[in-house]
Amino acid sequence: MTELSSTETRQAVVLVSGGLDSATTLACARDAGFELNAISFDYGQRHRFELEAAAKVASFFGVRRHITCPIDLRAFGGSALTDEIDVPKDRSDDEMSDGIPITYVPARNTVFLSLALGWAEVIGAADIFIGVNAVDYSGYPDCRPEYVASFQNLANLATKAGVENANHWVIHAPLVSLTKAEIVQLGTKLGVDYSLTHSCYDPDSDGQSCGHCDSCLLRLTGFAEAGLTDPVTYQ
What we know:
By secondary structure, the chain is α/β, with parallel strands linked by helices. It has a single domain, classed as HUPs (Rossmann fold). Helices cover 36% and strands 11% of the residues. The chain contains 8 helices and 5 strands. The chain has a 5-stranded parallel β-sheet with strand order 3-2-1-4-5, sandwiched between helices. Strand 1, helix 1 and strand 2 form a beta-alpha-beta unit. It is globular, with a radius of gyration of 17 Å.
């Protein structure tokens, strides 16, 4: 990730879900000297606690502007996060690393990045940050470095800004090669308040994390391996 000079301030659009990874990514963009614009998505997910967390995280970092884009992926379904399908619980490391889980939302990151790209072009930002991770990524194909590189190439081919200015777009994925423990350590160093974040796929009605879904298990393992205590409340 390229740091800016002290005399240069550039706009960045950061995808903010309200989870641990996106909060850390927002911190990385701020640390690199970008002026922050946050985009979140109300896509028909199982609960709204992550959107509430996204608003808190964006406010904590003092973003220039935070928008929440509505797009109802329930129209497609096909995922435990957008359909009447049970969220898997208490899976082993081997089970989580075996194939693509039912919590994968078809083409979600492609949809989200495309919308972020459109907004970035309007506000004059050339840099987009996304908190994908290929180490503890639960088998999601749109969290791999080759996917990020391919989308960057697409952005430079398919937009006015990309055509008029060669290699205009940069898609930053600062966490893509980090373990969850390394992400927690990095975010802690950069001052992230993880008590504001929400990662659970299947919280209770009060927003307390289940502690048993893949996302909770990966998060808890990350904090434990980092030698830290997760500040969110679990059932």
